[in-house]
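Support reply, case 0932

Customer input (verbatim):
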Amino acid sequence: MAREQRRALLELLQRPGNAQCADCGAPDPDWASYTLGVFICLSCSGIHRNIPQVSKVKSVRLDTWEEPQVEFMALHGNDAARAAYESQVPSFHYRPTFSDCHLLREQWIRAKYERQEFTNPERQEPYSAGYREGFLWKRGRDNGQFLSRKFVLTEREGALKYFNRNDAKEPKAIMKIEHLNATFQPAKIGHPHGLQITYLRDNSTRNIFTYHEDGKEMVHWFNALRAARFHYLQVAFPGASDTDLVPKLTRNYLKEGYMEKTGPKQTEGFRKRWFTMDDRRLMYFKDPLDAFARGEVFIGSRESGYTVLDRLPPSTQGHHWPHGITIVTPERRFLLACETESEQRAWLDAFRKVVDRPMLPQEYAGKGRRGWSGDSQRPCGRAKGGRLSLFQWKPTSSINPNLGTVLEVRGGGGWTVEACGRRERLLAPGLMGALDTARWSLSLATGTFSVAPHCGPARPGL
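Our regenerated output:
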């Protein structure tokens, strides 16, 4: 009898939807909740064990199953459970995967089955109301101490603020939603609920490290930030679909860790630094919890002259770690060294994923100056005949770093535009996505697009 039940369960695993964990998407789940009717992975089964009033779990292969339990699993399954428990998940709400931290997966499971937030929209108020106020532990920029600070998120003002004192009338910092990112960093921050918030300050990325003792509260803050970003982007890009917007709400870093680096002359000694790969930006810090990066470099695509080598030049000296990496850009080479071969492979994989990916038009606009530093280039130009076209910078290796090839989005019947005294080739709007075209149109309409006969370090309006 037990063998027949096990065979029936294994057959159920072959049904559509059951071959991945119902909660995190991990392949080949071999556990199940026989009270919820879902197949789950080992990691998520541990979370289910902590809510026994809702979920009771068994191993598909190792435990003994009773016939009614197997019949219950046959009547339900992962697809049916998603239809029941995820019927009203907001588009902005983060759906964790098996690669996400324990906190995100735990609170996702509790939100679905224990609190049933996605079948009762009124229970989503803590992160969907457009306003949130509370206290988080924040790390001091200079002394490194975590102190309780009041945070206020207001969608109406498009900002997240924090205050140094409870009775303070003016915030210590105002973080604009349009430039804000949040990512959980429990290991780096040293707390299981650690959240890293980044925003632009004077064209530099400012890091803020926070946590809350209550994991549910911290995840509510995270999803409230995503909701604010989502609603901002909906207004900014009315023609964009939710599918276009959701990937832009928050992003995780591609890779972080220690490497050694040398200076631009490549004759200085190598120094150990903490590196963060944030999409196409490679930043380095003296300490992982530094408020600002010591420098950063933009990594473009292979067709733009970027490549990555798994070695250092033969004449290189001064590095203590043996596993070298050379990042080749159109302007110079960046020399790095890893402590272990496995770390070298991991960094090479991260770099090559970026280099092998063609650049999008808006990524040309976000490219900074060459070197371990740099602000973004400001889109700039003149319009003749009282009309204006929108364009972006595409730096190339064949011209002066202060110039660039203009990619233009034309309106009406088209017109002539000069950028920095040069006429350049055009890019038809059809080659850009609707989201990118809307981005530039909004910048012009709101006055955040800079028009000038020269180039200067700044960022475009969005």
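We compared this against your earlier run and they match. Two observations from our side: The chain has a mean pLDDT of 83. The chain has four domains: 2-121, 123-246, 255-359, 361-462. Please reopen the case if you see a mismatch on your end.
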